[in-house]
Design brief:
Strand content: under 5%
Distance between the termini: 64 Å
Helix content: over 70%
Structural class: mainly alpha
Number of domains: 1
Oligomer: single chain
Order of helices and strands: HH
Number of strands: 0
């Protein structure tokens, strides 16, 4: 199919806008997912700190053993 220069330019411009929109959506999803992950990690970390404050002796337990314990 043969396009005039104006049609070609318009098509290229529309594709760029579409790609930019898709990139923006992916970036927004990435940032939202990262924020959720950070919140979850902070929550888990605070739970661990709370457990250690309640029982300081568990601060000396190897991390491999702590991984097996469900909170």
């Amino acid at each position: 199919m043969v396009l005039s220069y104006n049609s070609y330019s318009e098509t290229i411009h529309e594709e760029k806008i579409k790609k930019d929109s898709e990139i923006s959506q992916l970036k927004e999803k990435y940032e939202t997912d990262m924020d959720l992950l950070k919140e979850e990690m902070n929550s888990k970390f605070n739970q661990i700190l709370s457990l250690i404050q309640q029982n300081p002796a568990i601060a000396n337990i190897k991390p491999e053993i702590l991984e097996k314990i469900t909170i």
